[in-house]
User: Fold this.
Amino acid sequence: MHYFLMGDQMQLGQPSQGCHPGERGLSILDYLLHKTPAIPNDMGIFLNKTYRMHSAVNQFISDAIYEGKLTASPENDLQRVRIPDGYQGTLNKEAGIITVPVMHQENTQASDEEAEQIVILANQLLGRIYTDKEGQKRCIEWKDIMFVVPYNHQVNKLKAALGKEAKVGSVDKFQGQEAAIIFLSMCASNANESPRGLNFLFDKSRINVALSRAKCLAIVVYSPALVEASAANIEQLAMINLFCMLINSEYY
Assistant:
């Protein structure tokens, strides 16, 4: 008898309230692969092609999460958001990752400043022409945009600010879903003072899941002070480095 395991341990696990000593709480894939993001050839097959993300989004996900081994299917690059003629604003990319710094202080799990900026940017996107990977063109609607946040307090703020048509939710809620455009609001002014700490806010799997929902465009709204976080150990230093790689990378 043969058994096959399929999954991705770099996604988020199921929430659990239980406490399991040692490695007893790990999934089978976590137990077998530990921190290895791409399964070794002698243990299985790494499915190395995404049929969702434009290559400009996938490049960061591949390099930061999957050891540079994840590629985008060629037709994914037909997906793009047309920039209006003469536009000079922040949303000046047809595809890829756009980072939007927003100054704020003393916010822990919600930010009015980020919410206000997201409302402005979302309204700039509505009505732009989106081309899907079949080459079909249409105007962007609310259903084409997903607003992803780490904390429920910000979920409530964005729902109130954007209206009932907007798809707003936590990273956990949107795992497995997709949209042409993703907004990720980091919410916190200071990573060390955020609820559940730096390990939650900069968690590699959370950033992976949030950004990889995007078919075409991922927009990260954040406080510039987040990069000033203090690491207590090597694991946290790696998390900070990943976030710095995101906001300072060449992918957008």
